[in-house]
């Protein structure tokens, strides 16, 4: 644990050469890596193993304990033993952590409880392309419309397990429970995204990031995307057809490029507005 905290404090640069990232980014990367190791291969609706659940909770507590030292001073009234009150400054968690961190912990607990609810399901899983013959009355169905099982090479996501349900289908209660879990999970996602959006909206953009951006938004977007966005008639469908969205990584890269170009354009607009305002002040000063 000491080694992990040292890695966080050094910004993942264990050489101590000062080339590491900021502590906040190091903690964010550590949480992302932990999430990938625990949930990265969770392809089935089933409870987490006790070992993985313990690992997730223990290491998240380690990483989040850093927030105990992120405090702000707030005035508070305290009473004298003999009567009367006096005001003192007391430390409490920073306002955004005080509000959002308990909410995120609650959402995390809700997700784990949803997974735990699948301990006794009417369905099970089998590897794709493998037909299991048994006598329990459960039958596997291929995902394609043909009667034959698709080959692994023909499957886009061949690594995903294939769900098996009873020949008569799921019971009405099981269907309702699955729908409730789906709706609840969707609400959890919306709540987490709302918290993330609010936090990002309140954050100041670091000057180091702004200085690292190109001078022109066109350089961020690329010739093709810039041409589609600045056309006299903008058609979103044409732009989406042009963009490479074959994977999550390429889609994220596109979003980052658009976001960077927006920052560049905002910076130019603010600079232009400041120059115009300054010019008007000079003119008004001459007239007075």
UniProtKB/TrEMBL annotation:
| First and last residue of the signal peptide | none
PRONE domain location: 1-288
What is the superkingdom listed in this entry's lineage?
Answer: Eukaryota
Q: Cite the Pfam families for this sequence.
A: PRONE
The family database entries (InterPro entries) matched by this protein are listed as: PRONE_dom, RopGEF
Instruction: Write one Gene Ontology MF term.
Output: guanyl-nucleotide exchange factor activity
Q: Which UniProt keywords apply?
A: Guanine-nucleotide releasing factor
Asked if the Swiss-Prot or TrEMBL record annotates the protein with the keyword NAD, the reply is no
Q: What is this protein called?
A: PRONE domain-containing protein
Q: Which organism is it from?
A: Gossypium tomentosum (Hawaiian cotton)
